[in-house]
Amino acid sequence: MSLFSVNTNIGALAALQALDQNQQALTQAQNEVSTGQAVSSAADNPAIYSIANTINANISGLSAVSASLNFGAQIVSTASNAIEAINTVLGNLQQTVTTSGGTGINQTTLQAAITADLASINQFAAQSTFNGVNLLTTSGDSNVNASNFSLNVVQGLDGSVYNVANQATTLDSSASTLTDALGLTNLNVINTATSSSGAEAAVGGVQVKFDNNLSVSSFIPSATIGSVTGTASTDAAFQITTGTGASAHTYSFEFTDDGNTTPFSLQTLQNSSTTVVAVHVNSTDQSTNQISGALITALKSNGFGVVQNTDGSLNVVGSGVQSATFGTVNAGAFTAETTSGVDISTLTTTQALVTTVQNAVATANSIAANLGSASNQISGIQNFTTSLSSALTAGVGALTDADLAAESAKLTSLQTKQQLATQSLSIANKQPQSLLTLFQGL
To answer: C-alpha distances in angstroms, 250 versus 239, 267, 316, 397?
Structure first.
């Protein structure tokens, strides 16, 4: 092909091609500068665009998780504030029932104060509703306006949830109000002797004392209790009777020695009027106090209130406790025994009232601890969610964000090249005109 052709201008074609390529690069650079992204569409980089979109979807999901956690944190905080107020009321209530033991005290006045305090407890619990969720009372509470009584907080992109249970029903599945769950329902300082209606005191209880004559072996199946010497087929048992008449029920707390080398079965007395509870102990490495602690745990897990006094004795209340006996179970039969190591007595009305309220205070403290743990758990998940969202956002930026400093330098270079290409095209377009000089003078 001739370099001197008016039909084909090679120089102009080369300049046009360079100008077109430069314009495409300039357009891309301008797009990156204006959007701040090196990959803003699938055409820029299909693989990176797909990865970035997936991560962006996860970031949106984490935003929803964060919103759920924020709601959950406020719900738990509302319940925590309420239980703090309830603890204050319980302090006043303990002062009131302790006063009831004094001579010349007007029990009617004290009962009015107790009734008001119990109403306040239920009112605080019922009002601790946030976003339709109440963690301190149940749907059976006539004062509550809530649609949910436990909390599920979305804690992860997989949809997994963190649950905060209703504190009242966790304590007592049959409870209608928080005072029911705390064992304070119908708390009454007016006893049979002074009540004009003849109503019995609504609380009862027993005190169990273990003195220095009681050894660890007294709790285990081979125990010698009174005149009865146990064997591997005999269980030492602590029995509590609740209620009276047709509503009477027996709880048989039978000590099973996990450290006994001879396996044995629980000597069950289970029937419609008796509940058998195994108290697991280990005579090889546990002290009497530790075994007593095992009994406390078993009692509490069955709804009884237990307070351990400074002398180590136990005050047991709740569920209408009437009496208690220590003895042995053999061949499905219980034998009540007396031993110098165990002294069981009935609590006075005041003792039972104080113990009931003390147990309620301990239970309310447990609720506060549970809510505190839930708050810490939610806070920890919130922090992790925030960190994860930040990491994913940074990751998307690393994949798609443009280096504006580099793009600025690139843009300057391309603009210069564009000017040069335009000048080159102008020169190339003038080249065919030089051929006219060959034909001058003809």
So the answer is: 7, 15, 14, 69
